[in-house]
Amino acid sequence: MTASLTEHEDTVNCLTFSDDGRYLACGDDSGVVLVCETQDPSQFDRYHFTDSVTSLLWIPGTKSLHAGLANCEVHYLSLEDERAYRMDFRPVGYEEMSPALQELNQINCLAFDPVHSWIAIGVGVTTIVISIRDFTKNKYTELCAITPSSTNNRQFAQPSKALAAEREYGALESEILPRSGV
Predict the structure, then answer these.
(1) Could you report the per-residue pLDDT of 73-117, keeping only the tens digit for each?
(2) Is the residue at 96 inside a domain?
(3) Is residue 75 part of a domain?
(4) Residues 140/118, Cβ–Cβ less than 8 Å
(5) What is the CATH number of the domain that holds 71?
(6) Which of 6, 32, 164, 166 has its CA 20 to 30 A from that of 73?
(7) How far apart are CA 48 and CA 30, in angstroms?
(8) How far apart are CA 153 and CA 57, in angstroms?
(9) What InterPro entries does UniProt report for this protein, alphabetically (predicted)?
(10) pLDDT value at position 4?
(11) Residue 175 domain flag
(12) Which domain holds residue 103?
């Protein structure tokens, strides 16, 4: 073991290394993000947010970090110049939802496309794609939102294209487990 980080006081939900391996960022349920240097873990920065940190994303080639929160916010942090921005991706009617429904609509994951400078944001059952090409000017462009047409009547059927392992597992499952109509 190289080091043990004991600074979190709540459950750690996500971790990510910077692409150069110099930093490790980790976020927890209390809304704390710690960013430490991997060569000296005792050196760290602490950021406090208003809700649980559910996902983290380093932008490759930069000292920029995005933090996704349970309340549908994505925060941008720059370790170089201490800039910080907030983006809100709450679905329509979020404030009127029950706490259980709000929990289903949190930021679940973040992904970066370095070719186009796009970030994909998983919010509940929706994927939102934004361009951050001009993000240094504190703006972004939403390119698209991918939302299932109906989430109430989802059918869990075999995909039209399945990998060999998926086809094999599906066949094995049907031989072993009796199916009750879904």
Answers:
(1) 999 998 888 788 899 999 889 999 999 998 889 999 999 999 999
(2) yes
(3) yes
(4) no
(5) 2.130.10.10
(6) 6
(7) 8
(8) 32
(9) WD40/YVTN_repeat-like_dom_sf, WD40_repeat_dom_sf, WD40_rpt
(10) 58
(11) no
(12) 12-154
The tokens 């998926």 sit on which residue? 166
Q: Would you state the pLDDT for residue 12?
A: 85
Q: What is the 3-state secondary structure (H, E, C) of 75-124?
A: EEEECCCCCEEEEECCCCCHHHCCHHHHHHCCEEEEEEECCCCEEEEEEC
Rounded to a whole number of angstroms, the distance between the first and last alpha carbons of the chain is 47
On the question of pLDDT at 39 being above 80, the answer is: yes
What are 107's strand-pairing partners?
A: 123
3 occurs within a structural domain: no
The count of structural domains within the chain is 1
Q: Looking at the chain, how many residues does it have?
A: 182
Strand 73-78 vs strand 84-88: parallel, antiparallel, or unpaired?
antiparallel
pLDDT, tens only, 119-149: 999 999 999 999 987 776 667 888 999 988 7
Residues 6+ apart with CB under 8 A from 17: 23, 24, 25, 38, 58
Band the pLDDT of 179: cuts 50, 70, 90: very low
What would the two tokens of residue 182 be? 């879904």
Q: For the chain, list the strands marked E by DSSP.
A: 12-17, 23-28, 32-37, 44-48, 53-59, 64-69, 73-78, 84-88, 107-113, 118-123, 126-131, 141-146
